[in-house]
Amino acid sequence: MNELIKLNIDPLIQLALQEDITSEDITTNAVIAAGVKAEVDLIAKEAGIIAGLAVYQRVFELLDETATVEKFVSDGDTVKPGDLLAIVAADARTLLTGERTALNYLQRMSGIATHTQKVAKQLIGTRSRLLDTRKTTPNMRIFEKYAVTIGGGYNHRYNLSDGILIKDNHINAAGGVKEAIAATKKYAPFVRKIEVEVENLEMLKEALEAGADIIMLDNMDVDTMKAAIKIVAGRAVTECSGNITQERLKELGDIGVDFISCGALTHSSPILDLSMKNLRIL
User: Which of 179-183, 205-209, 250-254 is the least confident region?
Assistant: First the structure.
């Protein structure tokens, strides 16, 4: 893991560890003495896609700089129940104390990668790409958005500073679509693309006339989206959003929209069941 990644994720992992350890792991410290070396197996309990092994490893390294993780799989690999994924070696107290935090990260990230892959498969053969959203768990965005890419999805803007997206409340506050776009062009650097959320064809036409670079078709039915794509006619990048389910994806991809954003990738993915078993004193 390079230093730049550590700079971004170490404070978040430390917060997670502090949440789980306010003063000590009283059970572990009562059961085993400090300085006892041990190792433990990381095992898959269900089939899926692994994501987050470096984060999993970093949890133990922050607790014990001598910790090592021998990995038998890589992020993006498919695993099945019973597979040995890694062996972690460290002070026995470190293994027991860091277990839950490390697994929380790895199970969550692997679950998102697994779900994303299942969803993205629905778009094979279409021009559409699958996007995530900002509907992420607080303080987990960097991990969850990475997991989406491992599963075959793409990242929308990372945060509010990363891109311009004019939504309904922005439009209401500005007094209209054209007014919101004009204000944005006056304020934002020219290198920034402007995305506008539209709910009907009238708003779409206004956004195109005002020079929007990306049009988000929000909560439209299929027929309206088809009409919208014809109106856009390549003058802007198109994205559809709102009530995006796995069952609808293929139909939406066939419409010809460029991107499909799906908040469920991060807010509704189940975890992938993994376990640390067979702890051995060395």
Answer: 250-254
Q: Which residues of 248-260 are buried (b: 16+ CB within 10 A; e: fewer)?
A: ebeebbebebbbb
Question: Closest Cα to residue 282, out of 91, 93, 96, 64?
Answer: 91
Q: Which of 99, 124, 135, 142 is nearest to 275 (CA)?
A: 99
- 93 is written with which tokens? 């107290």
Ramachandran sector of residue 80 (left: φ over 0; alpha: ψ -120 to 50; beta: rest): beta
Closest to 252 (Cα-Cα) out of 214, 213, 226, 218: 226
Query: Catalytic residue numbers?
Result: 100, 135, 167, 197, 218
pLDDT band, very low/low/confident/very high, at 279 (cuts 50, 70, 90): very high
Topology annotation, domain 120-267: TIM Barrel (3.20.20)
Best CA proximity match to 78, nearest among 117, 47, 35? 47
Give 3-116+270-281's CATH code, choosing from 3.90.1170.20, 3.40.50.920, 3.40.1790.10, 3.90.1150.10. 3.90.1170.20
Q: 14-68 pLDDT, tens per residue?
A: 999 999 999 999 999 999 999 999 999 999 999 999 999 999 999 999 999 999 9
**What predicted TM-score, i.e. pTM, was given to this entire model?**
0.95
R_g (Cα) of the chain, nearest Å? 23
What pLDDT is recorded for position 254?
87
94 within 8 A of 67, measured Cβ to Cβ: yes
Report d(CA 229, CA 236) in Å as an integer: 10
